[in-house]
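User: Okay, second chain of the day. Same drill as before: sequence in, structure tokens out.
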Amino acid sequence: MTTLHFEAVPSVQLLGRTPGLVVMKFGGTSVGDTDKLKRVAARLVAAHEEGAKVVAVLSAMGHTTDELIRLAHEVSPEPHPREYDMLVSTGERISNALCAMAIHDLGHEAVSFTGSQAGIVTDASHTRAKIVEVRATRIHDALAENRIVLVAGFQGVSSSTHDVTTFGRGGSDTTAVALAAALGADACEIFTDVPGVFTADPRIVPDALKLDTVSYEEMLEMSASGAKVMALRSIEIARSYGVRLRVRSTFVDGAGTWIGEEGDLVLEKAIISGVTHDTSEAKVSIIGVPDRPGVAAQVFRELAAAGVNIDMIVQNSSRDGEATISFTMPKTDLPVARPMLERLCADLGGAQVEQDADIAKVSLIGAGMKSHPGVAADMFDALAEAGINIEIISTSSIRVSCVIRAAEVERAVRAVHERFRAYAEERVRA
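Assistant: Same drill. Structure tokens below.
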């Protein structure tokens, strides 16, 4: 039996490999209707006939999950979290069962599993559960019987309550990568509606370049900065367990983009890998709080306890003993955070809390930035020449992010991409 404990994060070598095993994940657009499901079934059968052991993770069909969420909110303004998870987890079960039927009609054996049947064990947090371990006994048994295995993504079962739990946005990516780690797969292939990872969103920059390779670190920064091609949590698991990832198109043949260790990918230290953007965050400012030790800790400790994710943080220098703390957070968390912050502001003797949802973040990412000074200055110049004002700046060793007005984000992406296009072309040639 293979049991992978995610909290302990052991070396992946201790788990062993399963030669010839591939995990293939298909997103909602890839299984949007029954014809597309049949094409996915044919692709899985083709891989099986070529000698691969196949485990597939399918998302819900098209907009099924959105429709289930709409129904939940029609019935209840605040759906009960347990019942919400029971409801929204059904979409993935439908697509996987239908695909298994199509595989049977193609003359191959297949079996579909729910997340719990596949052995995906989580904590008790509804709508944003974390995987604790994977008990893959039933999957191994099915593979030993030469079956194609289909697993409902986005869901698991709580080890303490035994209730169905879901993982939040990108949860099927997380399921697929966790299974690839637990099973020791040769690779985890993410099939989507784009042919790989690009240097910018092709809908905004039509001449954006497809990357052949990206490091885990770069992909983590890209996902955290707004790139929708893969979920952040799935990249974290892949890096921890050494799972080789490939993003490729469901609809167009091509090599896609490989994601892995920097040294294995031979990145040649190209300066940049891409320009990303994110319009899902809001800026919050707590104005006039006392400038003394412990104030910031108190604010962010309470936000963390409420499960609110904070991104960029800026605190200005003291003026007359008072300071302003500004930070960005998901717009979806504002209803939870706003009353809490109003109370904290009053308790601390602050002046007021301001929120601004009309912001966006544009980011420049690249492993080669570590050894190339002046990259940030070039990015700021590009934005200045486009007449775009920067409100907040945040950096890491391989990322520079700027908060700007939401209305200017597409223009900002194009301006920054154009400034660094020569470096992007160098990256692709490498």
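Residues 7-15 have pLDDT under 50 and may be disordered.

User: Thanks, on to the next one.
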